[in-house]
């Protein structure tokens, strides 16, 4: 089903809003940067058109969907977000106080989407989707629940099972067989005595110590618990080659040296319309290295480039986050703070757990242009750095990072 036919199923004012944003906006990524993303965008718009999400103020299931998400269909703004914003607008128009904001993830999502420049520009042009002031600070917060680890019951020891199966002594015809079976405990006792004697002669204290040592507890999965930034594997990268994607006008295909013996990784980035190719060549950057590889228009991407996007949106500029001068490919990039600095990132982020999507809204550039993550619960600032210094955006202040 084509994008136009999917959009046609939206209610009239929302349809005009989506068409306005996609036709007037210079950002082609609203339709999806890859084939998989385009399918996801169309799928979510179709669900919105059918009233499966957000219709009539039924926000309970939508709130659960949005808990781990920044955007609906992908990890960047798309037409699916514009459509859902249009559907949610009348719902939030009728909310009079923060006490009515009982679905925190939906509230956070709606307020974020309505502030995006392309959404604001298209909405204001139609004069039906005016900005709605939302008291996010006094709204209920998102509660993250960690499911308890289920413990397996221990199976009975083989020795115990054998003893349970030993029959009692029988009278009459079966007496001979029973007597033979009942001799087993005596034989075991003799064997134990023999082992004990040999152990004393050969220094059996080692065996005794081994028996007393407690069994090591099973290590929990590394991504148990709420998402934290130290789960993300950030490293210094060096672009050794870059070309335009052969089948996508808005994409670069880069070869990025990350200090690995296997050689540079292939990385696909949607930066053609924002950073000239000459400004990509030979650049040092920060790469996110433990995302699941994804195919983008037929080219598999094995990492993601960390960029700063202007607080005015992509139209205001996008810049590569730069490591300190003299950085080497593969150097560790980490978050300041005792709770994060010594942690080991996950080998690969589980896409189902949306770890990066949960952390990303806290990424920002400070007034000093330094890259940082701000903890949404405590407000503490954790700069993104290497051992030699803090990573920076060249010019952007208050920019989001992704």
From TrEMBL:
Residues 213-225 have a biased composition (Low complexity). Residues 168-179, 188-206 have a biased composition (Basic and acidic residues). GO terms for cellular component: methionyl glutamyl tRNA synthetase complex. Keywords: RNA-binding, tRNA-binding. Coiled coil: none annotated. It comes from the Eukaryota. One of its GO terms (molecular function) is tRNA binding. InterPro entries: Arc1-like_N (IPR053836), Glutathione-S-Trfase_C_sf (IPR036282), NA-bd_OB-fold (IPR012340), tRNA-bd_dom (IPR002547), Tyrosine-tRNA_ligase_regulator (IPR051270). Residues 228-334 form the TRNA-binding domain. The keyword Signal does not apply. Residues 146-230 are annotated as: Disordered. PANTHER family: AMINOACYL TRNA SYNTHASE COMPLEX-INTERACTING MULTIFUNCTIONAL PROTEIN 1 (PTHR11586:SF33), TRNA-AMINOACYLATION COFACTOR ARC1 FAMILY MEMBER (PTHR11586). This is Nucleic acid-binding protein. It comes from Coprinopsis marcescibilis (Agaric fungus).
